[in-house]
Design brief:
Number of helices: 4
Helix content: 25-40%
Distance between the termini: 50 Å
Low-confidence stretches: 1-18
Radius of gyration: 18 Å
Shape: globular
Mean pLDDT: 88
Order of helices and strands: HEEEHHEEEEEH
Length: 150
């Protein structure tokens, strides 16, 4: 019986069901683990994360195709802001890269995206391409302000 309990506890510790991740890039496995959320859907929304070894292993496995200590170390050194914030009322928010963004609601008819997001640092509207980071940037805003994205 003691061995059964030990085996169960090892499985539970190895795969926490409550662990959630959020993407910071467009490549497979570019994720960080959420550790705390506060003020979701308010003018002071915040999500704190950590970039774990497991996140790095996922990137190396899913994108690079080979898990090595060198790959893990390089991924762990990715410069990220581990907290993203938003004012859900105004639509202003920050990303894991430290960029300042503005969510402006539904895009006009004929646009290539469902929602209009502007990088206010660069004064550029994200065009929906992988290079613009539209998908993961929208996912970050959705995590902070889900009621604004319907």
């Amino acid at each position: 019986m003691r061995y059964v309990l030990l085996a169960i506890s090892v499985v539970v510790l190895a795969s926490p069901a409550s662990a959630r991740t959020l993407g910071y890039g467009s490549k497979a496995g570019m994720e960080v683990t959420i550790v705390k959320k506060s003020g979701i859907n308010t003018s002071h929304a915040s999500i704190q994360t950590k970039h774990t070894r497991q996140n790095a292993i996922g990137y190396c496995r899913d994108y690079v195709g080979k898990v090595t200590e060198d790959c893990i170390a390089k991924e762990m050194n990715t410069p990220l802001h581990l907290e993203i914030t938003a004012d859900c009322k105004s639509g202003k928010f920050t990303t894991f890269y430290g960029a300042n963004m503005l969510f402006q609601g539904r895009s006009p008819d004929g646009s290539s995206t469902d929602f209009q997001i502007t990088d206010t640092d660069e004064n550029v509207v994200l065009d929906g391409s992988g290079a613009s980071g539209y998908d993961y940037t929208l996912d970050q805003f959705k995590a902070l302000c889900p009621d604004r994205v319907k």
